[in-house]
Amino acid sequence: MASLTETAHLLRRGLIFSVLLILAYFVISFGSGLISGLVSPGGGKQIIKAEVRFGKLPFLHLGGKQATPKSEATAYVLETVTGNFPQTPSMLPVFPLQEQPVDILASDEAINLALNLGFPNDPKVLSPTEYLWEMSEQTLRMNILTKNYAVNPKYEVIFPKGKLTDATAIMNNAKVAIGTGRGLDTSFTDNLISISLLRREGTELKLAPSPLEAEVARVDFFRSVEVDKQEYRLLTGHPQEALVYLLLGGGKGQPFLKNYVTWNYDFKRGATYPLRTLSNAWEEIKSGLGTITLLLGKNGNYIKTVNLPEIKSITIRQIEISYFDEEIMQNFLQPVYVFSGQADLTNNERVEITIYAPAVDPDWIVKQ
Description:
The chain is of the alpha+beta class. The protein has four helices and 19 strands.
């Protein structure tokens, strides 16, 4: 029979052991809850529950001219570096368009901007918000509220003479020219500027086989937005063309066409929305609901989707997330999945292909 001292010692040991068991239970429960709260089943990061503050979002018209073929007629192959879908966030912010304030000086400001762009004459008023300036060699069309504009040359000066030889001068001239009047947007960093060297073929511009044959340079200024230290590009319905671009020609490159469209999204007032899984988007693409936004032939020139031969197979090698921007105003900047790879056509030609699919969970999109 145990003594009172031994009994007290056993009780003390039992109490300590019980406390340790309770503490271990809470540590394990808290840890597993923390992990399940931070990592989604698909491996993506989930910081907090999606806010969905703007309610259901408008359906995203992705600008492509052709839907993806159905898998019954076309073979789909996923051939990424890992052989699987990459890890993606389980949610991302959607950014609203800033409200345009009433500006009683909008007309005067637009006329001053036109003057800086080389249009001293009076404009034609096309509508309360659209002005047109016409000169002998070029025209300027501008939205006087947003100050988005396009400078277009007349046909006879669309292909200036002279070979482009100086890449540094092209870049510098492009920065100066695109910043005239409005100022160069600080988000246009060098790594977001793309230069394509082109040459004349009849009345069209095609990719130059070599820099020595280039007559025209197209310089595209892409934008990006940073979310959780990750940079996401803003892409249009054509992934290689930005909304801000210009054409330069003649020697070191003089500007003769400019397009400047930037929508003022409120990047400080975004609201997170849940993203659907990549596997869900992939199945939608295979069902014929993806949007083909780019086809490039072996010479690097765009392939028109009109009378396009049937696609035998599509091999996807890269998947990323971007935000979809467009020349037509949209109320929200939404993320999209971008699938890139190769497509084999029935005429035995192999082309580069890019396919878009909306990234936001369809439950938060207004049905078409």
